[in-house]
Amino acid sequence: MSITIITVGKLKEKYLKSGIEEYEKRLRSYSKIELIEVADEKAPEQLSEAEMEMVKKKEADRILSKLPPDAHVIALAINGKQKSSEELADTLNRLMTYGKSKIAFVIGGSLGLHEDVLRRSDEQLSFSRMTFPHQLMKLILIEQIYRAFKIMKNEPYHK
């Protein structure tokens, strides 16, 4: 099993980097894990709809160029399906059982994901209807992937 997490923007906050590195280290005993950061598109604070679309399109092109062609792609999107930790574990287990050895998770930038990425995704996952900073979502996602493996292996993990 190989898991790739593709995110837009470079992670700068040390406390987030530290948490992500810890879960990345823990995950290595269950799966190959690759974290890919693509550059975010620099843009002024106030953008028109057309400008927002252009920014998301440029970020989408960068994301799509990093996606393994045979990967099952799960895009994080606010309108995606919400799952419990156990349901995420079931999803990963089902994918592994039926021959999907490459899974890629995608986290967009501050404007979200372009339609091209959503179309390429096999499913969309939402952690909440609330909005979270995309850098924080990377930590939450990697922790949930680790938790999913612990659930699949019937190993104890704090609740």
Summarize the model shown.
Helices cover 44% and strands 22% of the residues. It is an alpha/beta fold and 159 residues long. Helix 3 links the parallel strand 3 (72-82) and strand 4.
Question: Can you walk me through this structure?
Answer:
By secondary structure, the protein is of the alpha/beta class. The chain has one domain (2-152): SPOUT methyltransferase, trefoil knot domain (Alpha/beta knot), CATH 3.40.1280. It has helices at 14-27, 49-66, 85-97, 115-120, 134-152, and strands spanning 2-8, 32-38, 72-82, 102-107, 123-126. It has a 5-stranded parallel sheet. Strand 3 (72-82), helix 3 (85-97) and strand 4 form a beta-alpha-beta unit.
Key features?
159 residues; alpha/beta; Alpha/beta knot; 5-stranded parallel sheet; 5 helices; 5 strands; 44% helix; globular
Largest sheet strand order = 2-1-4-3-5
H/E element sequence: EHEHEHEHEH
The first-level CATH class name = Alpha Beta
**Rg, please?**
15 Å
User: Could you say which structural class the secondary elements and strand pairing correspond to?
Assistant: alpha/beta
Subcellular location: Cytoplasm
GO molecular function: rRNA (pseudouridine-N3-)-methyltransferase activity
Family: Belongs to the RNA methyltransferase RlmH family.
InterPro entries: Alpha/beta_knot_MTases, RlmH-like, tRNA_m1G_MTases_N
